[in-house]
Write a structure and sequence with these properties.
By secondary structure, this protein is an alpha+beta fold. 26% of the residues lie in helices and 21% in strands. A 7-stranded mixed sheet has the order 2-1-5-4-3-8-9. It has a two-stranded antiparallel sheet with strand order 6-7. The longest helix is centred in the C-terminal third of the chain and has 11 residues.
Length: 198
């Protein structure tokens, strides 16, 4: 049984805070795999190709965004790190110009159906594509953490930053999710290629 429809842009009080279980410790330094994924923009994206060059690739991986009028899954707010995909995505949207100035190419990624990703990207006017990984191909290639709820598998929330085909920074766990874009910007300014060059 599902809960009542929720305000997708606001987070409930007293959400459980996710703890670092070490599930992303192996990622820094790993090569970005050549995984071709469908995108909400209609163009396929190869992650290895997107990670090359002088800029940085930012991929925020999230469980699923809410659908207006659809209740959140049963127990969703009790799962540490599950809630907050809409505020996180909107924060990246609102920071798009600053991220671009720092040389970042941004993608969101989840296993959510592509039609729902497309609807969300249009509704929230996202200036970057959402990548579709319903087969959890990136999870297999990089051993990314996932979880199950009500018999459905989801990605755990984390954010990868890659430069010259290698993962150089991982944010995991991500909480609160709406602060993630600001944390990425702060890291890029201080420790990213642009920050080090400056």
């Amino acid at each position: 049984m599902n809960q009542r429809p929720a305000d997708l842009h606001a987070l409930p009080a007293n959400l459980p805070i996710p703890e670092d279980d070490g599930a992303a410790d192996h990622l820094p330094g790993a090569a970005v795999p050549s995984v071709g994924l469908r995108a909400s923009s209609g163009e396929p994206v190869d992650l290895a190709g997107a990670a090359g060059g002088e800029g940085v690739l930012v991929v925020y991986v999230y469980p699923q965004t809410g659908v207006p009028g659809r209740p959140v899954p049963t127990g969703w707010d009790r799962i540490p790190g599950a809630r907050g995909c809409t505020p996180q995505s909107c924060a990246f949207r609102d920071s798009a110009r600053e991220l671009a100035e720092l040389g970042a190419t941004v993608f969101g990624l989840s296993a959510q159906p592509l039609d729902e990703q497309h609807e969300f990207a249009e509704r929230e006017r996202l200036p970057y594509p959402l990548l579709n990984d319903t087969e959890f191909r990136l999870a297999e290639e990089l051993a990314l953490p996932t979880f199950e709820a009500n018999g459905v598998r989801y990605y755990r929330r984390l954010t990868l930053i890659a430069h010259r085909w290698r993962i150089v920074k991982v944010f995991y766990p991500v909480f609160p999710p709406q602060d993630n874009a600001g944390d990425v910007i702060a890291w890029l300014r201080a420790d990213g290629p642009a920050g080090k060059a400056g």
